[in-house]
């Protein structure tokens, strides 16, 4: 999002942070959307009331709530590859009720995907055959339940529960060598992984109480549980575990948290809000080895050593105050200050090497207790908004936010390829945003933004040759800047035809002298999305929606230990969707993604999916 990644843009559900305690490597593909009512996005500028890590903005998923006395929904979608090959099935169900003083709902999703197909232009390699992408299969299901009490028009108290289970594979890099020769298992330079389970469970309470005519109090309390198992194999056929590369790595993590926000209007022109929040994260990891360094008694697919459970514990505290001053009905002036700090209670790892300690691996065999260090960071924000009319405004935003490094960045040995950095400092960004939006005609909406971000203490993996070949460390490598502009427009040409789209132009530069020829990766210089909506008057209920995505070139890197940076090249993808509202309660959809089966790559060695097609039906009652 404007050059910031998933570590720098927090994800919340109904305002409750979804944060994986050890590394926060959230897999967004595991989150299904049928029970989501709205996605709220703040780009660059995020309120200090949202808590820590909002360096590049924030994303909040708002869960669905019933609006009628009785309502239900059923959704089923089948996916097919570029040649009609069956790829998988997705389904969802929802049931809810809204009564005078309460509401209740339950929903669930289920997805079983065989995988996805590569474009026809992709030729097979020793690492990847023609057709289905190896390791691209996924399986997920979840169930969500919510009950809420609404004693009056303003107050609400709700309890939500979510349980989600999933499993997934891990596609190979199609360029790096995987096997020495076809049919030979003697050599592998890639990780051969899958996740037999990747599970999340949450229970959270939310309240919103109005006090008098001008004040309110909001509270939240939550418990999150994260369990997953990474299985690594000794050969590329995902079958044998008989070397040090074969192991099971199990995470059993949880988080507890609570927060309170209060606000009041003073003298009719100031709205003051305050926030206090606490979060406790616990990471518990264990590992089973099928081939142990220096030990010759291991048998294939039989565990020969199980390490002790290692634990890391950390507290996070946040306080913030925000004031909105409205000197006139047309002007809003926002000021905010927050302070976040982390207290590290325990940080453990396990050294599996039986050899004598070295500079790169200074700890003896067994459980490693790292030195404990705390970190803190202030946050600032300011905004000026001028409302020309109810449908037109201009704004200037400023935010100065941090992003704390994860436990993984600070302490993980990355299976012996990295050394710890307990003193790793938070990243920081000062974001400036100037924008204008208007619905200057009944059929037209336009918004324009320009942004400039100053980056400090940027975190990257840096080769540390003095510790040995292939050894890296997470470091605050440098500083830089992101800048660019965005245009979004929607135009209702006539009652049966509309056009819309957006354009983003961005440049990123990071000065990192420790890394040869370093370039920030993963973000195109230019990105455009265009769509049209056609609703033929001769066929009531039919909507045809073609869309076009154009991406400019982006940087990628071959290897973090011996990095070679290069640009992937631009590409264009065409999509198409058709919806037909058969009756008030029944809708059919058909469509295709990457309609012309374009071959393109976003990351070194990982080609993107080819053409896929889908057929869906949605029934509401």
Describe the protein in words.
With 621 residues, the protein is mainly beta. The protein is built from one helix and 33 strands. It has a 22-stranded antiparallel beta barrel. A four-stranded mixed beta sheet has the order 2-1-4-3, with no helix packed on it. Strand 19 and strand 20 form a beta hairpin. The longest helix has 5 residues. The chain is globular, with a radius of gyration of 26 Å. The relative contact order is 0.11. About 2% of the residues have low confidence.
Structural class computed from helices and strand pairing = mainly beta
Question: Which bin fits the share of residues in helices?
Answer: under 10%
Overall mean pLDDT stands at: 89
**Major sheet description:** 22 strands, antiparallel, barrel
Proportion in β-strands: over 45%
Rounded to an integer in angstroms, the radius of gyration calculated over CA atoms is: 26 Å
* Gross morphology: globular
Number of H- or I-type helical stretches: 1
The tally of beta strands, per DSSP, is 33
Distance between the terminal alpha carbons, to the nearest Å?
37 Å
Q: Which residues sit in consecutive blocks of at least 5 with pLDDT less than 50?
A: 179-188
Question: How would you briefly describe this protein structure?
Answer:
Helices cover 1% and strands 58% of the residues.
Key words describing this protein structure:
single chain; 621 residues; mainly beta; 22-stranded antiparallel β-barrel; 4-stranded mixed sheet; 1 helix; 1% helix
């Amino acid at each position: 999002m404007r050059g910031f990644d998933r570590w720098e843009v927090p994800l919340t559900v109904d305002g409750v942070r979804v944060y994986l305690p050890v590394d926060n490597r959230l897999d967004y593909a595991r989150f299904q959307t049928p029970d989501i009512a709205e996605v709220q996005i703040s780009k660059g500028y995020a309120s200090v009331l949202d808590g820590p890590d909002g360096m590049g903005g924030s994303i909040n998923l708002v869960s669905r709530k019933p609006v009628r006395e009785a309502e239900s929904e059923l959704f089923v979608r089948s996916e097919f590859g570029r040649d009609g090959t069956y790829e998988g099935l997705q389904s969802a169900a929802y049931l809810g009720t809204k009564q005078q003083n309460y509401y209740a709902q339950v929903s669930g999703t289920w997805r079983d995907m065989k995988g996805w197909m590569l474009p026809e232009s992709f030729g097979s390699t020793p690492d990847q055959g023609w057709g289905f992408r190896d390791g691209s299969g996924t399986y997920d299901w979840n169930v969500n339940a919510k009950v809420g009490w609404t004693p009056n028009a303003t107050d609400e108290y709700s309890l939500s529960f979510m349980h989600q289970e999933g499993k997934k594979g891990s596609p190979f890099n199609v360029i790096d060598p995987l096997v020495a020769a076809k049919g030979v298992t003697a050599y592998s330079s890639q990780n051969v992984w899958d996740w037999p389970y990747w599970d999340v469970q949450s229970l959270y309470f939310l309240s919103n109480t109005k006090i008098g005519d001008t004040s309110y109090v909001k509270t939240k309390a939550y418990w999150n549980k994260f369990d997953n198992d990474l299985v690594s194999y000794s050969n590329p056929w995902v079958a044998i575990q008989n070397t040090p590369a074969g192991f099971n790595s199990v995470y059993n993590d949880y988080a507890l948290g609570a927060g309170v926000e209060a606000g009041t209007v003073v003298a009719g022109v100031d709205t003051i809000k305050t926030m206090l929040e606490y979060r406790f994260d616990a990471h518990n990891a264990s590992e089973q080895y099928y081939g142990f360094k220096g030990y010759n008694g291991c048998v294939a697919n039989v565990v020969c050593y199980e390490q002790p459970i290692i634990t890391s514990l950390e507290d996070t505290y946040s306080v913030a105050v925000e004031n909105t001053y409205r000197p006139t009905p047309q002007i809003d002036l926002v000021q905010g200050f927050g302070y976040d700090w982390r207290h590290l209670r325990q940080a453990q790892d396990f050294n599996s090497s039986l050899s004598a300690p070295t500079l790169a691996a200074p700890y003896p065999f067994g459980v490693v207790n790292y030195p404990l260090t705390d970190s803190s960071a202030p946050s600032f924000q300011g905004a000026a908004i001028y409302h020309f009319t109810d449908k037109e405004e201009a704004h200037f935003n400023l935010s100065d936010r941090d992003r704390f490094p994860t436990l993984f960045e600070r302490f993980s040995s990355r299976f012996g390829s990295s050394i710890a950095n307990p003193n790793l400092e938070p990243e920081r960004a000062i974001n400036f945003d100037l924008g204008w939006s208007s619905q200057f005609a009944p059929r037209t909406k336009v918004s324009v933004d320009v942004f400039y971000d100053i980056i400090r203490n940027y975190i990257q993996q840096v080769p540390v040759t003095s510790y040995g070949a292939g050894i890296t460390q997470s470091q605050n490598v440098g500083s830089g800047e992101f800048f660019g502009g965005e245009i979004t427009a929607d135009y209702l040409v006539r009652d049966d035809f509309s056009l819309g789209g957006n354009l983003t132009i961005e440049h990123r530069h990071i000065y990192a002298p420790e890394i040869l020829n370093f370039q920030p990766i993963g973000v195109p210089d230019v990105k455009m999305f265009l769509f049209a909506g056609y609703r033929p008057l001769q066929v009531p209920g039919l909507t045809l929606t073609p869309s076009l995505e154009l991406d400019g070139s982006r940087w990628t890197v071959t290897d973090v230990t011996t990095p070679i940076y290069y640009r992937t090249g631009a590409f264009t993808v065409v999509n198409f969707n058709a919806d037909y509202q058969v009756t008030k309660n029944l809708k059919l959809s058909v469509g295709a993604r990457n309609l012309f089966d374009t071959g393109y790559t976003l990351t070194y060695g990982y080609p993107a999916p080819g053409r896929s097609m889908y057929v869906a039906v949605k029934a509401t009652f």
